[in-house]
Amino acid sequence: MLVGLVGKPNVGKSTFFHASTLVSAPTGNYPFVTIKPNHATAYVKVECASKFFDVIPNPREGYYVDGFRFVPVELMDVAGLVPGAHEGQGMGNAFLDDLRQADVLIHVIDAAGGTNEKGEPVEIGSYDPLNDIKFLEEELDMWYLGIIKKGWEKFARTVQQTSEDLSKALGKQLSGLKVTEDMVKDTLLNPAFDGKITEWSDETIKLLATKLREQTKPIVIAANRMDVPIAKENVARLQKEFPNYKIIGSSAASEVALREAAKAEFIKYVPGENKFEMIKDMTAEQKKGLQFIQDSILTPFGTTGVQDILNYAVFDLLNYMPIYPGSVGKLGDSKGNILPDCFLLPVGSTALDFAFKLHTDFGNNFIRAIDVKTKMTVGKTHVLKFGDVVELVVGK
Question: Considering only Cβ atoms within 10 Å of each terminal Cβ, which end of the chain, N or C, has fewer?
Fold first, then answer.
């Protein structure tokens, strides 16, 4: 699973990346600080299954704190996009191509309106962030359109002449964008795609690009710099203007400060929570800064928004769920580690899907599974639920 961070330059993408991963990416108050994409591990937050059994887990990957499991996902920070990116503006073609393998996108915008369309600092409130949402949609759609139209006439004639299944042909043609045959089938149910493919208008092909982009690159909006007063007003307006998007206010800089303070053991802080606890003495200036975050971000908004955005991308847009391997009466591995593993699977996955996720041999030799929480035996078609702990019984 790959989560992509996108947006125009200088809106806080690299700060959001740092807040999510504690890996520093280049930052600066000017466009194109980031050129090559940065990759690091971020974490989604779930209530750990260990609470059900009243035990403390020992995660092999990710970490555990105060009843919450933080499960790793890959996060990619792509260089800033500007209008005309699909035409090569600002190295846009290269930056867009970096997004090909992304499963979901987090679009970071400057909700305070202090960054113009080129990513240059301007007076707070003088730029309308609404334009940024429209701009990214257009750039992504035109990028998809450009890919689809490469060799389109020849492709369309071949499909028409051979009577090849259009869904299958397009799914294969666009697999590099994570388009599947089923996605194409759903898209082609739209009456706009009736008629011969060789007679489709440019407008029809553009609609195809948009519909496939929406399915393969779902987007959540990170409305950054929400601590600036005008940002709250802008977020409310954007939510009305774009009801199909989830728009979540965020303060990436505040999250960085909290996580760095927690890392240095000045405070106890669980990402995504609405408070922290000071556990080590610090300077008056440091205390003042942290108190400002509590009073201006955590108390009025509930969180900094960073963890909420990551969780929404993975659990709501991609529709994944955490599943744990375990055994009835024995939750530990051979080394005594309790519930060491947690895997993310698509909602609707079965016990057999989970077996194959763990190892091909487990899937091929599957006999049955046991729901460890209920101790009920289930078959290979049993649909798993969010947070299940599953024991697999396999043959040799």
Answer: C
Owning domain of residue 258: 2-37+78-141+218-314
**Domain identity same for 259 and 299:** yes
User: How do residues 311-323 score in pLDDT, each as one tens digit?
Assistant: 999 999 999 999 9
Task: Name residue 390's amino acid.
Answer: V
103 and 236 co-located in one domain: yes
CA–CA dist 287, 320 (Å, integer) = 38
Number of domains in the chain: 3
Q: Do 103 and 182 sit in the same domain of this protein?
A: no
Question: 127: which residues sit within 8 A by CB, 6+ positions away?
Answer: 110, 113, 114, 115, 116, 117
Beta strands in 183-297 (DSSP E): 219-224, 247-249, 267-268, 277-278
Query: Are 175 and 306 members of one domain?
Result: no
The count of other CB atoms within 10 Å of the CB of residue 56 is 12
For all residues of the chain together, what is the average pLDDT? Answer: 91
C-alpha–C-alpha distance, residues 44 and 126, integer Å:
35
Asked whether the whole model's pTM tops 0.85, one would answer yes
pLDDT tens digits, residue range 67-84? 999 999 999 998 778 766
DSSP single-letter state for residue 257 = H
The residue among 298, 314, 330 that closes a domain is 314
SS3 311: helix
Q: Are residues 206 and 281 in the same domain?
A: no
- Are 378 and 234 contained in the same domain? no
Q: Rounded to the nearest 10 degrees, how much is the dihedral formed by the CA atoms of 131, 145, 99, 138?
A: 0
- Measure Cα distances from 111 to 17, 115, 257 in Å: 17, 9, 20
Same domain, 223 and 133: yes
pLDDT tens digit sequence for 256-315: 999 999 999 999 999 999 999 999 999 999 999 999 999 999 999 999 999 999 999 999
Q: What HEC string does 265-295 produce? A: CCEECCCCCCCCEECCCCCHHHHHHHHHHHH
Q: Which residues contact 351 (CB under 8 A, 6 or more apart)?
A: 366, 368, 369, 378, 379, 380, 381, 382, 384, 390, 392
